TrEMBL record:
Domain TauD/TfdA-like: 96-210, 255-352
Keyword Manganese found: no
Family of this protein: Belongs to the TfdA dioxygenase family.
Pfam family, one: TauD
Superkingdom of origin: Eukaryota
Biased composition (Polar residues): 213-249
Swiss-Prot/TrEMBL keywords: Dioxygenase, Iron, Metal-binding, Oxidoreductase
GO cellular component terms, A-Z: cytoplasm
Region (Disordered): 1-22, 203-267
Taxonomic source organism: Penicillium bovifimosum
Biased composition regions of type Low complexity, renumbered to the chain: 9-20
Annotated protein name in UniProt: TauD/TfdA-like domain-containing protein
GO molecular-function term, one example from the UniProt record: metal ion binding
Length: 365
């Protein structure tokens, strides 16, 4: 059955694995070894204001620290404990705006940092059902970083990204950063005709992240021109293909990039809702186990096209300062979008609790 994933070092441990967060390089969402002009960010420029949250500036300060391979662990999904009527999360003063019928809700009147454990459980279930949930005017960026890390740790073991910059002393936080007057977006587009790269975060791991995969916007961008990432629900993706195609997908597996090989089902089952979701993406998937290369390439090309063209199951969210987006990484994939060219700073922080190993329940026509 299923395929393989890329090797990502995890929790702190003895010197025994590839170095973390020390190599220079570039990818679309983040710069590896990005040279931060700290004084420029602190003072601002003629057109860009000083950074609002200097304690969230990325550093790559652990070049001598090494991380062992991630150890298996037993994950418990708090959504299983939630009251499905959401009385502690969606109280009387809360307003909910469903952004599309299939995916995406924007909730007003909730301060995430103040939620009780019961409300957090309900948040877990609500996000599993709506896939992507947006909260505005949140205060995480102004609170002590350790408090924010502890908050996300309620939902699962922290994943430590192997290459991204992080706030000094907090490798659990994955930062996406573009500094003042940065032009790397334009550089990316010199090599590509568009910036869409659908993926779910670090699905190469044996136990990839769950919801919340909580992304907090600390960006300062004019309200009229925010960067707007896009999410796509893969649960609906299992519906349009014919029953014969669906039957062929269930029970198969996909391989993700070297040097680690992690086998995951093409279609995975959500542990709380029981929904099935297509679990492939062009950024990490390598091949379908049991298929010849030409067969695997043919089917994956069809699935990637299906994802890209299914705008009826997509939602686009506009960033503003203080925005937090919580999504279920198991059933929703996303793509960053370069939709600005004016050198505005882009500054996002992500906390990424890990979850269970992907599994699949028997196929039912």
């Amino acid at each position: 059955m299923a395929p393989g994933l890329t090797e990502t070092p995890g929790l702190r441990g003895p010197l025994a694995a590839p170095p973390l967060k020390s190599d220079a390089g570039f990818n679309k969402e983040n710069l590896i070894g990005y040279k931060i002009e700290k004084e420029r960010e602190l003072q601002g420029t003629e057109t860009i204001a000083p950074v609002t949250y200097p304690n969230y500036l990325p550093v790559w300060d652990n070049e001598t620290e090494r991380y062992p391979p991630l150890e298996p662990f037993e994950h418990y999904d708090h959504g299983k404990d939630a009251d499905p009527t959401f009385p502690d999360l969606l109280t009387e003063q809360v307003e909910v705006d469903e952004l599309t019928p299939f995916i995406g809700s924007e909730i007003h009147g909730v301060q995430l940092s103040q939620l009780s454990d019961k409300a957090k459980d309900q948040l877990a279930l609500y996000v599993a059902k709506r896939r992507v949930v947006v909260f505005r005017d949140q205060d995480f960026a102004s609170r002590p970083i350790q408090e924010v890390v502890d908050y996300a740790g309620y939902f699962g073991r922290h994943h430590i990204h192997q290459t991204s910059g992080a706030p000094k002393g907090f490798p659990e936080i994955h930062l996406v950063f573009r500094g003042a007057d940065d032009r790397t977006g334009q550089n990316f587009l010199e090599q590509r005709t568009n910036t869409i790269t659908w993926h779910s975060d670090v699905t190469f791991e044996k136990q990839p992240p769950e919801r919340p995969s909580c992304t907090s916007s600390t960006a300062q961008r004019p309200a009229a021109t925010p960067s707007s990432p896009t999410w796509y629900t893969r649960t609906s993706a299992c519906r349009p293909p014919s029953s014969s195609v669906n039957a062929s997908l269930n029970g198969g597996g996909i391989a993700r990039r070297d040097p680690i090989q992690s086998e995951h089902p093409i279609v995975r089952t959500h542990p709380v809702t029981g929904e099935k979701a297509l679990y492939v993406n062009p950024q990490f998937t390598r091949y379908i186990v049991g298929y010849k290369k030409e067969e695997s390439d043919y089917l994956l090309k069809f699935l990637y096209s299906h994802i890209a063209l299914s705008q009826d199951t997509q939602v686009r969210v506009r960033w503003r300062a203080g925005t937090v987006v919580v999504w279920d990484n198991r059933v929703a994939c996303h793509s960053a979008v370069f939709d600005w060219e004016d050198g505005q700073r882009r500054h996002l922080a992500r906390l990424t609790p890990q979850a269970e190993a992907p599994f699949e329940t028997p196929y039912e026509a």
